[in-house]
Amino acid sequence: MKNRNLKRKLLQIPILLIFIILAVIMLLPIIWMLLSSFKPDNEIIRFPPTLFPSAFTMKNFIKCTQRIDIWVYLKNSFIYSFGATLPSLLVNTMAGYAFARYDFKGKDIIFVIFLATMMIPFQVIMIPSFLEVHALGMYDNYAGLIIPKIAAAYWIFMMRSAFSGLPKELEEAARIDGLSEFGIYARIMMPLIKPALVTLIILSVNGNWNDLLWPLIITSNSKMRTLSNGLALFVGARTIEYGAAFAGAAISLIPMLVLYIFGQKYFVEGQATSGLKG
What we know:
By secondary structure, the chain is mainly alpha-helical. It has 14 helices and no strands.
């Protein structure tokens, strides 16, 4: 028995080494970016490159705050990311719940149409979306940024998959006890798909946080820019302010890193379960 356990542990060593190497490869760009935010520009572009700065400096962060209104951009990114994500929890979970738990005429056809929209690139619909937002008087404000991002076919598909895995006996028992349909959805079903909900929150917030194109299209006022738009200002036609750009990217990374650290347990579980069911 001891020999078998020893052989099993020895076989796990190469697998662990492979995972460690892959983790280092994946984390190296992030580590490089974080360390480069403390380097002067001439050291960032030095060849051969160095990983650690010869002397840590905070000048890049000071320059970043002086060149762009980073705190306004951070505020706009938070409003855009969470403002679009929180309503999407209600809209997409209700749609997914309806597709998973109710039978109604044309359900399968409607769901296929929803899935078909996932194959349409955003570049195809961005001009019609802009015209619609402009016609509704939502151009250059938070409503124009947030409302078009609330509902998404991918989230509806994921929520449908999560709800489909729950036993029907839960609903039947709740109906016998006199609970309303919305009560069954909110008090019985929603707590049981917590991993899928956390996955939706993390992916939606992260996607909106890093979104460059839609805020660039739908806003013209510099006070409405998000952080992704602001960081693009460091890349000019002939010059690139590497140090300030790395400092801004490091500031941008921190909120998403904190969000993932607190939600990683549910995120991994949600990706492994709800996303794989039909």
